[in-house]
């Protein structure tokens, strides 16, 4: 009897891990598929550079506003049904935005897809904390690897797909298929409201807003998000403006995501084993300073080196997800801490891509925007140092 229960528990954990991986693959497709064909989107929809900057800020706005609502919704219906609903929104948004006749509709339908991602973003750490309490770092690393693989695939394949279909719209719409594949496991899990749903709905709320560690995580999340979405939104264009081809710019951009596959896995596993993650956070910030400084000097001088350095600093994302799961004592606290850190963090990040686009328009170049990014690495380093200290809520 005991052996049968253990086998059922093992199978359940494997099923949950597969569901986590499938969901994570989708968490950046809607974003990274846009950058490589941004020029074609702007031409097709008659989109100005300022509106394009707004497009790069839509993800952080949706992740902030919708993410803050996730714990309240999860308390009412459970975590897994909300994740399933998020994947439905993502599928609808990805499938329909390719039909948008103008910039406004494209932005609106992108927001629908991104709202779905926001719900999944916030709640996945609680699933990890509940189902894999002794393997938080390793499992977080696995699903962030899947996230990076999805992001890399979308970044590298959108241009070839668009060329193959002869239309950037079809090149974007095809990514809805990945969301369709991820949905069935979560629909099955939503029918069986297990431990995670019970803990999220029954545990008394924790006032994370009063916790200094929560604010440190929020600021760190905001700074790394600013960097990540500037890279996602503008790095291919920076390379193209420096004279590199669209295909090479897409591959270089994909490199920044591809590096997150081995690095994210190893970094998360390491972060889960050590008591303090402060040194890791500081080190990543120094790589960011080097990468943005290189782009500032000359993007075409050593494009692969700059892409590698920025790929390293992008692993701040799996690091902060691991820290969020480690800093909460139970799944309910992790949900609230995740919502606070991601919600407030994304609010902090909203102005970043818009400011970069506006500075580019005002100065007709990338010197000033990239100088700003070098400076923003400093508060990221400071916040990461305090967020990484051995504390729990």
UniProtKB/TrEMBL annotation:
It comes from the Bacteria. Residues 16-392 form the Major facilitator superfamily (MFS) profile domain. Its main location: membrane. It is a multi-pass membrane protein. One of its GO terms (molecular function) is transmembrane transporter activity. Keywords: Membrane, Transmembrane, Transmembrane helix. Pfam families: MFS_1 (PF07690). It is found in: Cell membrane. This is MFS transporter.
């Amino acid at each position: 009897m005991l052996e049968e229960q253990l086998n059922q528990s093992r199978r359940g954990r494997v099923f949950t891990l597969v569901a986590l991986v499938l969901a994570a693959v989708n968490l950046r497709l809607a974003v990274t598929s846009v950058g490589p064909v941004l020029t074609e989107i702007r031409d097709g929809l008659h989109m100005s550079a300022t509106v394009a900057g707004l497009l790069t800020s839509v993800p952080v706005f949706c992740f902030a506003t919708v993410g803050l609502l996730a714990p309240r919704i999860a308390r009412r219906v459970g975590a897994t049904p909300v994740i399933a609903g998020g994947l439905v929104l993502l599928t609808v948004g990805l499938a329909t935005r390719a039909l948008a006749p103008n910039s406004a509709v494209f932005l609106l339908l992108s927001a629908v897809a991104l709202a779905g991602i926001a719900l999944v973003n916030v709640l996945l750490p609680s699933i990890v904390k509940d189902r894999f309490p002794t393997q938080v770092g390793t499992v977080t690393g696995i699903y962030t690897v899947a996230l990076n693989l999805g992001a890399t695939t979308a970044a590298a394949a959108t241009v070839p797909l668009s060329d193959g279909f002869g239309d950037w719209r079809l090149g974007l719409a095809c990514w809805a298929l990945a969301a369709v594949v991820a949905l069935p496991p979560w629909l099955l899990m939503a029918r069986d409201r297990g431990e995670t749903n019970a803990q999220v709905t029954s545990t008394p709320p924790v006032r994370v807003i009063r916790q200094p560690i929560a604010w440190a995580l929020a600021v760190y999340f905001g700074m790394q998000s600013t960097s990540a979405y500037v890279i996602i939104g503008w790095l291919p264009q920076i390379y193209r403006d420096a004279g590199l081809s669209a295909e090479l710019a897409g591959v270089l951009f994909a490199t920044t995501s591809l590096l997150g596959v081995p690095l994210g896995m190893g970094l998360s596993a390491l972060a889960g084993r050590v008591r303090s993650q402060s040194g890791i956070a500081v080190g990543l910030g120094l790589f960011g300073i080097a990468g943005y400084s290189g782009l500032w000097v000359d993007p075409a001088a050593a494009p692969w080196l700059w892409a590698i350095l920025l790929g390293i600093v992008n692993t701040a994302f799996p690091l902060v997800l691991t820290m969020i799961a480690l800093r909460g004592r139970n799944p309910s606290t992790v949900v609230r801490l995740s919502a606070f850190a991601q919600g407030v963090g994304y609010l902090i990040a909203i102005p970043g891509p818009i400011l970069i686009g506006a500075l580019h328009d005002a100065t007709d170049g990338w010197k000033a925007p990239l100088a700003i990014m070098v400076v923003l690495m400093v508060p990221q380093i400071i916040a990461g140092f305090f967020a990484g200290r051995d504390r729990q809520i």
